[in-house]
Design a protein that fits this description.
The chain is α/β, with parallel strands linked by helices. Helix content is about 40%, strand content about 25%. Strands 2-1-3-4 form a four-stranded parallel sheet, with helices on both faces. Strand 1, helix 1 and strand 2 form a beta-alpha-beta unit. The longest helix is centred in the first third of the chain and has 13 residues. The radius of gyration is 13 Å and the shape is globular. The chain starts with 5 loop residues before the first strand and ends with a helix. The model has no long low-confidence stretch (mean pLDDT about 90).
Length: about 90
Amino acid sequence: MREQKYVIMAADDEQELLETLELFLARENMILVKAKDGKEALAVFESEQPDLILLDIMMPEMDGFSVLRKIRETSRVPAIMMTARAEDYDKI
């Protein structure tokens, strides 16, 4: 019997971060689908239907909050927001 592979979507404009995530997740038998901006994230979400999403807050085209609001119109997939912002308010 084959082990199920989870599909995780990561949306971030930092290509190096996406590549590093892909390496680590592959070791755990997970598949990473990537998006470089908010608009691409919505398209990838629709086509791949991931089990978890990782969203950068500050992305070109559409920020992570806007992407998540749009996704929440049709899905309750778990989401983790990523940020480089330093303020406590932003992190909360």
